[in-house]
Specification:
Helix content: 25-40%
Order of helices and strands: HEEEEEHEHEEHHHEEEHE
Mean pLDDT: 79
Low-confidence stretches: 1-13, 118-127
Largest sheet: 5 strands, antiparallel
Radius of gyration: 39 Å
């Protein structure tokens, strides 16, 4: 039995009316295939008739947020686009085909964040290309931290970062802290975008920020200790130089005999005490001592003071240049 034309018209009007009722509303569709998180927002902007009877057009604004896992690294991207869906009189496309209705404020926050940050990738993660494998296998002899990809993304704008290595200086620690604050502030302003596709990623980012701050704090504490040790070493050396010139000094130098087969010069500075190695003969004027002037000189002859104490340069201004023995 054929369907009366009136029934067709009634059905067409019904579909058209559903779209008219959806005008201004937003629909949200989320999917999670393996390795990808995808959320699509669709807002119905307008519903218009066409020149063809029964046909109509639906103007929509779509926002798609995608999170991908590439080689174990998470990246985010977004697409914001407008379009027109042309529907025939017998269309069966309904508003709920685009997911469940969601609150308008949520959609406005998402689109506002995308407009404010128009970069395609919301999170920057270093990706190594095969042609860029140009590392030279020589150990780095500078204080540094080795960072995870997530930690490196937090200090990506610092000039002290090289791939996954972060060089440590007083300025670099300050730069890293400023960069972390900047990146976390930026992330908090677009948190809805990340939250929509992967709340686990948000937790991982927070953990990376906490671990990186802890590494920087530890590095700074170690640097303070190293500076103190360096300062103490410099104090020892300066004080030793004064003592060798027989000038007022906190360092005392003497000749010690440990046993019949082991003797030599030692220095005392506070509670510190260590043996000294002979470097060369020196002159109080700073000039080099020629080889002929060094002949016949013996180190022990410069320790004729009380209790074998060092007596200073001889009458020719020559004295032994001594340095703390290497470990």
């Amino acid at each position: 039995m054929p369907i009366p034309p009136e029934a067709d018209t009634a059905e067409d009007v019904s579909v058209r009316s559903l779209w008219q009722e959806a005008l201004g509303k937003v629909f949200k569709l989320a999917s999670k295939p393996y390795g990808v998180r995808n959320v699509t927002y669709t807002q119905v902007k307008a519903v218009k008739d066409t020149d063809t009877a029964g046909n109509f057009e639906i103007e929509v604004l779509c926002v798609e947020i995608i999170a991908r896992v590439l080689d174990g690294k998470r990246t985010h991207s977004n697409i914001c686009k407008e379009g027109v869906l042309r529907q025939a009189a017998d269309s069966e496309l309904l508003p709920d085909s685009f997911g469940e209705e969601c609150p308008l404020p949520e959609f406005e926050k998402v689109t506002g964040a995308i407009l404010a940050y128009t970069n395609t990738y919301l999170e920057w993660v270093m990706q190594d290309a095969p042609e860029e494998k140009t590392d030279i296998g020589i150990p780095i002899d500078m204080p540094h931290l080795r960072l995870t990809n997530m930690e490196a993304s937090l200090v990506r704008n610092s000039p002290f970062l090289h791939r996954d290595l972060y060089l440590l200086t007083p300025n670099s620690v300050q730069a890293a802290r400023a960069s972390i604050q900047q990146e976390m502030g930026r992330a908090s302003r677009s948190i809805l975008l990340v939250d929509a596709v992967d709340p686990i990623y948000v937790a991982q980012k927070n953990e990376a920020a906490a671990s990186l701050r802890a590494k920087l704090d530890e590095a700074q504490r170690e640097a303070v200790v190293a500076r103190k040790v360096t300062a103490w070493s410099a104090l020892q050396l300066d004080s030793l130089n004064l003592a060798l010139l027989a000038k007022p000094s906190a360092t005392a130098i003497s000749w010690v005999t440990a046993n019949p087969y082991e003797e030599g010069a030692v220095f005392h500075l506070g509670l510190a005490c260590a043996p000294l190695d002979f470097v060369r003969w020196a002159h109080v004027s700073g000039r080099m001592v020629p080889a002929e002037a060094s002949a016949g000189r013996y180190l022990k002859d410069y320790f004729k003071g009380w209790n074998n104490a060092y007596t200073g340069p001889d009458q020719d201004g020559i004295y032994p240049l001594l340095r703390p023995a290497a470990d």
